[in-house]
Amino acid sequence: MIIATAGHIDHGKTTLLEALTGQGGDQRREEKERGITIDLGYRYANLGGEATLGFIDVPGHERFIHNMLAGAGGVDLALLVVAADDGVMPQTREHLAILELLGIPQLWIALTKCDRVERQTQQSAAAEIESLLASGPYAGAPIFPLSSSTGQGVPELRHALLNEARNITHQADKNYFRLSIDRAFSVSGAGTVVTGTALAGRIQTDDSLLLCHPNGGQQQVRVRGIHAQNKASASAQTGQRVALNLAGERLKAEQIQRGSWIVASELLNPSRRLDIQLNLLADAPRPLEHWTPVHIHIGAQRLTGRIALLEASHIAPGACGLAQLVLDGYTHAVHGDRVILRDQSAWHTLGGGIVLDPNAPTRQRRTAERLAQLKALTLGSLEAALPSLLATAKNGLAPDALERQFNRPQHDWQLPDKTIIQPTSNGPRLFTQAIWQDNHAALLDTLTRFHQELPDEPGPDRGRLRRFGLPHIEPAVFGALIDAALAQGNIAATGPWLHLPEFSVRLSTEEESLKAKLWPHLESGGINPPWVRDLARLENCEETQVRHLLLKLARLGQLHQVVRDLFYPEIAIEQLITVILKITEQNDTLEVIEFRDAVGLGRKRCIQLLEYLDRLGVTRRFGNHRRLRTESSLVLRVKNR
């Protein structure tokens, strides 16, 4: 069990821990000199039971509340220390608010210095505390009157803690390991050691993990040794205070900041935007405005950033709402993590929240669809949120992203009924059956509309079809839709062109008549057919009319457009391939000059033809040389005649 003390400065937190554990605090020189706890004080003690209890003595001074926040994560029970002679003080209220925002499951009150006051004063202090707790989640919390100096009431508190420790058991969950580092130091003969509370998962010696820094960088490290609850151990698990002896390339303790993360590689997800459910304290000095600068505490990490409100222009004291935190550094939060917000000067706690999406979008963050997703995420578990998330996900949900977001390995998910796992080029996606069918219907509707608006074209390629009517569908998902529709026979493909199976481009009567006039000129031209302007002059018609027809025939596969306004019939292309076959019989490579001499055309035309044959897949260029691609279907057809 992990126990944290909290409360106003000089109310006796450190002295109480000495009385409970028999161990002195304030180990650092500056702490002894000043008589206050500046940094986190960790102590472990066996109070007479089987389990070792971990105590965190967090600072009470206003300037050091960020240290208190660094130690509060993963705590099972908080001891709020209140001196009977002072009663409730400003830091008492602030620490209580922070404990509530962090979701610490239990709170007990240690009413200290009872030996210094009359019984009536003690009762008055207890009544004041009860009144303070009455409206919050810790209403009715037990109060233990005691004196650390005389020992009065200390055995009763120790006995209660032992009983509670027997009731609290931490089982190693099946999630990936996470730890937010609150200390890093070097040990002679061992090397770099980091400490923190294991927030999830289980590790063993020799495991490989990632050390993630607030600047977004990461480094692979190996676990050389483990201390769990202040004892050497071969493993550590959720809820334990852990010290890890790490090994890594050029790893030095002084390079590791408080707030760095140790995570399993599956959780690597450096993020600078977090969508949260925000709660503003009732005693906040003013409403929280959009884009307010704040200090943000996540685990042992402290960052600066701004708040983007998603539902309104401000949040009133005591109210809650959806917001996005735009951070100045990187964090590795997951769904359900608690965050604490302090003002720009870091003197006052404003409120806190629960992380909903640790990889929040930069755009369209206030749309109705996005807000519906965030409201679904407030439901808690992955299984609770999935039905609503899937119902609004036109592009499906990526399982690996959900795995990182919720820290839930995929093997133990319970997917809703009628969930489709659809492969895509970017990995599988989860869809509801209804949304996948809607996307499929939208694809067919878009292709039908394309044919209606552009009946002279054989169909769009994949990119054009997506841009034409389905730009909101991601390319990877769109590709999967196309592949599924092709496999089912609902659409067809002719080369790169997509079309409905029953669709075909047809020439009008006028176009058929013009084709009959132009075709003999194209065929008689052989490997040097006339240009569009020459064809128009020969038949005394408009260039635009001729160009439109030849482009249409090219889309139908009846002509090859080598360059603008120059079209070759298939038979002419086959003649060119025959020439290249003869040239390459004696030499594997082909040069422009050889091709020019063989076909008797100018150098510019020859370069245009060879570049087209490159695009067609007949030849492949290597510097100034080309090689015939013998696997080309056109080459094989000519050779087999």
Automatic annotation (TrEMBL):
Keywords for this protein: Cytoplasm, Elongation factor, GTP-binding, Nucleotide-binding, Protein biosynthesis
Locations listed in the record: Cytoplasm
Chain ranges of the Tr-type G domain: 1-168
PROSITE patterns given in the database record: G_TR_2
Cited SUPFAM superfamilies: EF-Tu/eEF-1alpha/eIF2-gamma C-terminal domain (SSF50465), P-loop containing nucleoside triphosphate hydrolases (SSF52540), Translation proteins (SSF50447), Winged helix' DNA-binding domain (SSF46785)
A GO MF label: translation elongation factor activity
Pfam families registered for this protein in UniProt: Beta-barrel_SelB, GTP_EFTU, GTP_EFTU_D2, WHD_2nd_SelB, WHD_2nd_SelB_bact, WHD_3rd_SelB
Task performed by this protein: Translation factor necessary for the incorporation of selenocysteine into proteins. It probably replaces EF-Tu for the insertion of selenocysteine directed by the UGA codon. SelB binds GTP and GDP.
Protein name: Selenocysteine-specific elongation factor
Organism name: Denitrificimonas halotolerans
